[in-house]
Amino acid sequence: MRLPWLRSMAACLAFGLSRYCSMENIAGYEIIGSICQSGDFAVYRAMKMGEPTGETVLVKIPASKLPSPAAIRQLEHEYQAAHDLDPALVVRPLGLERDNGGLILLMEDRGATETLEDYLAGPMPVGVFLKMAIQAAAALVDIHRHGLIHKDVKPANLLVDADRNVRLTGFGIASRIASERQMPEAPDTIAGTLAYMAPEQTGRMNRSMDSRSDLYALGVTFYEMLAGALPFTAADPMEWIHCHIARSPPPLAQRAIVPGPLSDLIMKLLAKPAEERYQTALGLEADLRRCRADWESLGRIPPFPIGAHDVSDRLVISEKLYGREQEICALLAAFERVVAHGASEVVLVSGYSGIGKSAVVNELHKALISPRGLFVSGKFGQYTRDIPYATLAQAFQTLVRIILGKSEAEVSSWRDALREALGASGGLIVNLIPEMELIIGKQPPMPELAPKDALYRFQRVIRRLIGVFARPEHPLVLFLDDLQWIDASSLTLL
After folding, report:
1. How far apart are CA 68 and CA 64, in angstroms?
2. Reduced to 3 states, what is the DSSP secondary structure of residue 197?
3. What is the pTM of this model?
4. What gap in Å lies between CA 129 and CA 310, rounded to an integer?
5. Which of 31, 141, 387, 472 is the most exposed place for a label (fewest CB within 10 A)?
6. Model confidence over 165-195: pLDDT tens digits?
7. Distance between terminal CA atoms of the chain?
8. What residues have CB less than 8 Å from 182, skipping those under 6 apart?
9. In the structure, what pLDDT confidence band is assigned to residue 312 with cuts at 50, 70 and 90?
10. pLDDT-derived band of residue 6, with 50, 70 and 90 as boundaries?
């Protein structure tokens, strides 16, 4: 038997570091229960003080006492993004209010008791799954119809009420762009949840994310609902990315007793290329409704053609590269030789402007995941040829900024490696890349040398810098675009 008051008390104890406790007030609202805490936010049930009707609202607040500007922006964005959506399918925001210098989001309360993440306690019965799955798919239909990409579909963002109805929430990073390209940033800085993230959302697929990215995340959620476990397990962010891009999930039918058509439906959602998934949430909802009708009337789900009603309402041009297989294979083969043998290689990619050279090079991102390779790029310019090493500095600034965003332990490891490699010549690199001082600290001034000796010293130090990043445990790819405009100093160094 479920005891709602006990769940609220346990949640309040678990959230001991949260901003509020169960009997405190928020901007004139009295907290009467806890719903969940997910990531940087907590959701409570609250009643407006002095309200004679006893009506309640859901209050979403930053979990930290000192919320970051990014957390505040997410609350503001969620209010704007979800305001016009169907309240029967999503948790509708009611307003934003200030409290003690912070911001809270008021949302409509329709009796949610917990998140789907909290509800899951093992494989879900097929009948219960179909009821919830249809509602989740219908929520995506409404979201996509309004031109939104949710970008964070997961059980923690599906609220469940006592009648097992679900509504979608968590619109803090939703996008109003029909198609969006994620850059290959450090894994722990990508917006979203890696365990449920579509391959293209990782930035390593050389593809843009769109509404089909939400369908992949919903497929991971469905898999977890029926199997009682995620399709993949990983120990760190880069391994999660490798799972989504390169590993095939175990067939659902091998991990749970699930009707064949339902298993096929979910495995279709988990296809790596977006072109092979469901193209619309509407087509998915139609198939789920057919599954439920058969299950309730027959007690089973006979085979039927999956995706028969999955017709996109807009033209989607495939981003797959055609006619470049030979070039991509040559590029990947060079990288694999470097990983295997450790010797450096140079690959020149030539062609007219706009022919797709960068698109071919970006196919390397997928190959970099398993060996945990690093990728940096710089672009030479016709009007910057008189600035020595400017493009190399631009490329390595990217790596320095990635390091600065890591944990203190990881920064310390890089600091030790850089200090050991650069020695007393770190000031030369700080002059080239000022951000480097934030890692290795303030450097002593360098003694003056004759021009020829100074050039030799600089090139020796920058080779040592490159050697820190180009190692067996993380090989380095340096992509230099528009090489025809290279400056003389960089050319000599190369």
Report:
1. 8
2. coil
3. 0.81
4. 21
5. 472
6. 999 999 999 998 877 777 777 777 788 899 9
7. 71
8. 190, 200, 201, 202, 203, 208, 209
9. confident
10. very low
Least confident of 40-44, 201-205, 250-254, 318-322: 318-322
Give 38's Cβ-side CA count (13 Å radius): 24
Give 3-state DSSP helix, strand, coil % of the chain, rounded to 5: 45, 15, 40
**Of 138, 143, 140, 168, the residue nearest 154 (C-alpha):** 168
Report pLDDT digits (tens) over 425-467: 888 899 888 999 999 988 888 888 888 888 888 889 989 998 9
Return all residues near 110 (Cβ < 8 A) that are at least 6 apart.
87, 91, 161, 165, 167
pLDDT tens across 423-435, in order?
888 888 998 889 9
Distance CA 488, CA 494 (A): 10
E strands within 124-268? 158-161, 166-168
Residue tagged 């306690």 (tokens):
121
* DSSP letters spanning 20-55: --TT-EETTEEEEEEEEEETTEEEEEEEETT-TT--
Q: How many CB atoms are located within 10 Å of the residue 345 CB?
A: 10
Of the candidates 209, 213, 250, 215, the residue with the CA atom closest to the CA atom of residue 232: 250
What mean pLDDT do residues 244-261 have? 90
Please give the helix or strand (H or E) that residue 460 lies within, else none: helix 451-469
Query: Are 134 and 289 spatial neighbours (Cβ–Cβ below 8 Å)?
Result: yes
* Ordered strands of the 102-108 beta sheet: 25-26, 29-38, 41-48, 56-62, 102-108, 93-99
In whole angstroms, what is the distance from residue 273 CA to residue 270 CA?
A: 9
Q: Which amino acid is at 183?
A: M
CA distance 122 to 25: 36
Distance CA 383, CA 385 (A): 6
Q: Decide: helix, strand or coil at residue 455.
A: helix
